[in-house]
Amino acid sequence: MTRKRLLLVLAFGAAVGFVVAALMTFLDWRLNPGGIFHGPRGTDWSIVMETAFSWFAPVSALAVVLALPVAIWNAR
Hints:
The protein has about 80 residues and is mainly α. About 80% of the residues lie in helices and about 5% in strands.
């Protein structure tokens, strides 16, 4: 596998992770379960960022793991 193909797989994983994290974080912020995302004092950005990262890391890793065999297979 070439370096360019590997970077493409990593970029794909990051993009998928970002989209899913942004969507799920927005939905959590909008629903505001337990009032932890925002209240009378405004948005608690530490909770928002923690939620975004907790979605981004596993989703992007899974996207890379799933895309890597496809990239290897197509390189043959």
